[in-house]
Amino acid sequence: MFSWFGKVSFVPYSKVQDFAVHLKDGRLMGSVCKECGQRSFPPRADCSECMSGEFEFREWNGKGTIHTFTRIEAAPTGFEDDVPFTVAVVDLEDGGRLLAWTGETIPFGEVRIGMEVQVVPRIFEEIEPIKVYYTLERPGTTWGKAPKSE
Ligand SMILES: [Zn+2]
């Protein structure tokens, strides 16, 4: 299941594997600690504040503001066809942080620290294994399946 995210399983506990299932549906899920209310994204099975293992999934609204960003000009291996591109760290309104590429609704020249964005999960279903990734779009953009590559 975590092959959807590439080689790195960034969620180390099987307790939170439903996260990947929700992502496939285009939903962005965080976790909320049932003991102290701590909100985490990506979801954590064990609370970073009180160490409780009791949590529930909550759907995040995907709204956030850009904390910082960078322009990638020299491609890492495997991304040679994609440069230049912009990645940004976003502080999510519902809690937590996320790293994502800026999407087509935000030209590079308009990217600013503090800018409001909408996180949009994109899904490639045509290829195996199914790939899910995020883009940052203008507020109000809804999620969708990535266009088929011609
Ligand atoms: Zn807690």
Structure summary:
The chain is mainly beta.
Structure description:
- The protein is mostly beta strands.
- It is 5% helix and 36% strand.
- The strands form 2 sheets. Strands 4-5-6-8-7 form a 5-stranded mixed barrel. Strands 2-1-3 form a 3-stranded antiparallel sheet.
- The longest helix is centred in the N-terminal third of the chain and has 7 residues, at 18-24.
- The radius of gyration is 16 Å and the shape is globular.
- The model is unreliable at 1-13 (pLDDT under 50).
- The structure holds zinc ion.
- Zinc ion (ZN) binds next to loops.
Task: Present the secondary structure layout.
Elements: H1 18-24, E1 29-33, E2 39-40, E3 55-59, E4 63-72, E5 85-92, E6 97-102, E7 116-124, E8 131-137, E9 144-145
Parallel strand pairs: 6-8, 7-9
Antiparallel strand pairs: 1-2, 1-3, 4-5, 4-7, 5-6, 7-8
This protein binds zinc ion (ZN).
